[in-house]
UniProtKB/TrEMBL annotation:
The keyword Oxidoreductase does not apply. It comes from Aeribacillus pallidus. This is Fatty acid-binding protein DegV. Keywords: Lipid-binding. NCBIfam families: DegV. GO terms for molecular function: lipid binding. InterPro entries: DegV, DegV_C, DegV_domain_contain.
Amino acid sequence: MQIAIVTDSTAYIPEEVRKRHGIHMIPLSVIFGDESYREEIDMTAESFWEEIKRQKELPTTSQPPVGEFVELFESLSKEYDAVISIHLSSGISGTYNGAVTAGQMVDGIKVYPYDSEISCMAQGFYAIEAAKMAKEGKKPEEIIARLDEIKKSMDAYFMVDDLSHLQRGGRLTGAQALIGNLLQLKPLLHFVDKVIVPYEKIRTRKKAIQRIYQLFDEAASKHPVRAAVIHANRPEDAKKMKEELESKYPNSEFIISYFGAVIGTHLGEGAMGLCWYKK
């Protein structure tokens, strides 16, 4: 059985990694005024952070139309018997539900939609693991079972550096953002029951990063993990974090990923994150 692996652009898997594993990607979009850009195709993370500085208003974001899913699945049906379609949490986007609907509309291929219940490179890890298993000839049910196993140990924490994005996006009032910035508050966020919720409010960026390290240590000190350092236009900070973690946890694996346009719209520049799961 030939199995295709699909994920959406918010997994932020570097293009060369997607190509290496044969992962297909369907994009979400960001809309500045009357202009719509498919992230990872029309707009890279780098160009997004440049554009956001030129705009007075934050962009809006949109999920892929069901028709694009149908078109993708139908094209895959020419080469594959099944597709596992892995998407960002259904609690923050309708993308997963779009895959479900499209899967019911196509013939000639069995579609297995999968709700990662998370986003960014944590979601990407599911897609990479699925792609490896597909190449090994595993059945769809075996792959889904492994993804469910990963989900039991998957964790992620994000630090918001610039509260103005949360404020402009309606997540905070102007007064809350102003006070937060004056006090140098850096909210830590994580996923609970498919949605992003506050975990802790911490004073200063340095202390917030140290708190993420503490949370990571609770898992990585017990067993080796696969982890990703995620950054919003802070590549040097991400590189430093990766090197620090690699030196302390030599039995774990670390990569660097990024917050692209869609997730970056909500978190803002300077955000940092760390996600991991048990190897």
